[in-house]
From TrEMBL:
UniProtKB keywords: Signal
Name of the protein this chain belongs to: SMP-30/Gluconolactonase/LRE-like region domain-containing protein
Annotated InterPro entries: 6-blade_b-propeller_TolB-like, Hetero-Diels-Alderase-like
Signal peptide as annotated in the record: 1-19
Organism the protein comes from: Blyttiomyces helicus
Annotated transmembrane regions: none
Length: 324
């Protein structure tokens, strides 16, 4: 079996290097730039400011969504999706990454459960942190599973047309990114180019109709939500990050159709320290999805509110290596 460790990387975020205002604060900064064969798929942010990113590599197990259930206890979706048909098959499984153990130099990766009927696990979000439950999306089948990380069991809890690839296009991936906010499950459908939401119960099943938040008519990947229901959504081969208000109004944040820097945006998360809580960290696949301007996956730091910043941000202590 290919190791999941080689598909998760630890990076440093941004640190404040000056406490005085800087008049020409850069909008975007590259935190890490990987080799041309590396697809950076998803991102999580530790409370200490470090970044965890998942990747697809030619000779490693694919890793998709990542979520934190308790401090420094992260869970990753190992997926059967891969960059090449020649890559040996990997299990669709959920793995636990204990970053406290990693910091102490101890064994830190354990398999929680293999989802034997899943085909292409992708997005992941915490459902109930106290109960230790996650929701995990199968982009190929258009399902959502609830995973109990304490018992190592799983159950299919959602199966709806809004989650499936129902349009005859080259991309046959349905539900992709998903996150829970205030009793609502928000999710993107890559095939539809649509951002949806649905009320859910405590066990992750639907408690109401599936609603369209925004129809962006472009391939959508993962996203991050803020407390008022607004979101920042990545568009993968669209090479952009879009800001979508809770009412569905959309506007461009960063990137462009021909951007190399933002080539293949895949996920986004905000920093968690005082120095970077208005910095949006964006991962990219470096153009591997579109096959255009392939430049290697990146982690970018995008300042989304320059007028509120009183410090010049620079990379600090960058580490880019597999968690092994």
């Amino acid at each position: 079996m290919l190791s999941i460790k080689a598909s998760v990387f630890l990076l440093a975020g941004l640190a404040c290097s000056s406490a005085s205002p800087f008049p020409t604060l850069p909008t975007t900064r590259t935190v890490a730039h990987f080799s041309n064969a590396t697809w950076v798929e998803n991102i999580a942010v530790r409370s200490n400011g470090q970044l965890l990113v998942t990747t697809f590599l030619p000779d490693a197990a694919g890793a998709g969504g990542i979520a934190e259930l308790s401090p420094d206890q992260f869970f990753v979706a190992g997926t059967g999706l891969s960059l090449s048909p020649n890559t040996p098959p990997s299990p669709n499984a959920v793995f636990k990454i204990d970053m406290a153990a990693f910091d102490a130099g101890r064994e830190h990766v354990t398999k929680v459960v293999e989802l034997t009927d899943a085909i292409g696990l992708n997005g992941m979000t915490a459902l109930d942190k106290h109960a230790g439950t996650l929701l995990v999306a199968d982009s190929t089948r258009g399902y959502v599973y609830r995973v109990d990380t304490l018992t190592g069991s799983y159950t299919k809890v959602q199966d709806d047309d809004s989650m499936k690839a129902t349009i005859a296009t080259a991309l046959q991936l349905g539900i992709n990114g998903m996150h829970v906010l205030d009793g609502m499950l928000y999710f993107t459908n890559s095939n539809h180019g649509t951002f949806y939401k649905v009320a859910i119960t405590e066990d992750g099943t639907a408690a109401g109709p599936y609603e369209v938040v925004a129809d962006l008519r472009t391939i959508l990947d993962d996203f991050t939500l803020i407390k008022n229901g607004d979101s920042y959504i990545t568009t993968d081969p669209g090479n952009t990050v879009e800001f979508v208000k809770a009412d569905g109004t959309a506007s461009l944040v960063a990137g462009s159709a021909d951007s190399i820097l933002f080539g293949g945006t895949t996920a986004a998360q905000f920093g968690r320290t005082r120095a970077d809580n208005r910095v949006l960290y964006v991962t990219t696949n470096g153009g591997l999805a579109s096959g255009k301007n392939i430049a290697g996956g990146r982690v970018l730091a995008v300042d989304v509110s320059p007028s509120k910043w009183a410090a010049y941000l620079t990379p600090s202590g960058l580490r880019s290596r597999p968690l092994e």
